[in-house]
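hiii so um. not sure if this is the right channel but i have a protein structure encoded as tokens and i wanna go backwards to a sequence. like what aa goes where. can anyone help
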């Protein structure tokens, strides 16, 4: 990737990119499918393939299990399954999506800022970011510290507050792979662009009507373009 992809930002055009982790910066669809298949038998479920995983994946995650099993799981089943799922994931090597590091480099060189927000456990996120050696790109790296199974809207609000951006959400772009990412951004007044290479089926993302691209680079380019349009025509966005 050409690291001069973006024009140098000015104080008026500088954006802050909030990256999603699983399915976005971390290329881990196959790991998630494998981890899910390691937990489903204990719940009476059958193994799924990539297409089924992406088509039925949803947030909050207990709803995902309900879709797969045809029933609501109990709280104890959720706790046991989530622990087993996360243990399986932690055993897998960390793979950063192709082109992500070059893209982050280009954003930094253009004077845009970046952070990482995930609903995976905070200690796991910190360890994986350290393994990938990409922490230096981010002003803040934040994972989940409370109960699992929630959505990203409230964590994003806390994240932006910690970054001093709670009242500057107009210059925040969230790049993710889930409808919940877009919903969280909109709930906080930020922009969101989703990509099709993650944990959610492209058809489902397209049907939701959010800005959607096939690559992370295209997502950032589109996000910066949408931000410029919002600056130029604030009443129309």
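sure thing!! here u go:
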């Amino acid at each position: 990737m050409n690291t001069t992809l973006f024009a140098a930002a000015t104080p008026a055009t500088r954006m802050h990119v909030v990256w999603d982790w699983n399915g976005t910066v971390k290329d881990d669809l196959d790991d998630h499918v494998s981890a899910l298949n390691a937990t489903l038998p204990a719940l009476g479920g059958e193994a799924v393939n990539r297409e089924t995983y992406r088509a039925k994946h949803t947030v909050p995650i207990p709803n995902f299990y309900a879709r797969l099993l045809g029933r609501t799981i109990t709280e104890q089943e959720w706790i046991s399954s989530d622990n087993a799922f996360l243990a399986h994931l932690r055993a897998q090597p960390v793979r950063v999506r192709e082109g992500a590091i070059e893209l982050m480099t280009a954003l930094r060189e253009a004077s845009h800022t970046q952070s990482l927000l995930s609903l995976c456990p905070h200690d796991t996120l910190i360890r994986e970011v350290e393994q990938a050696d990409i922490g230096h790109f981010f002003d803040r790296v934040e994972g989940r510290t409370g109960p699992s199974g929630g959505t990203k809207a409230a964590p994003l609000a806390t994240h932006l507050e910690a970054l001093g951006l709670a009242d500057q959400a107009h210059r925040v772009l969230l790049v993710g792979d889930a409808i919940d990412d877009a919903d969280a951004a909109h709930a906080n007044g930020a922009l969101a662009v989703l990509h099709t290479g993650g944990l959610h089926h492209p058809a489902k993302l397209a049907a939701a009507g959010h800005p959607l691209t096939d690559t992370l680079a295209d997502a950032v380019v589109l996000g910066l373009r949408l931000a410029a349009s919002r600056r130029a025509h604030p009443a129309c966005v």
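oh and The mean pLDDT is 93.
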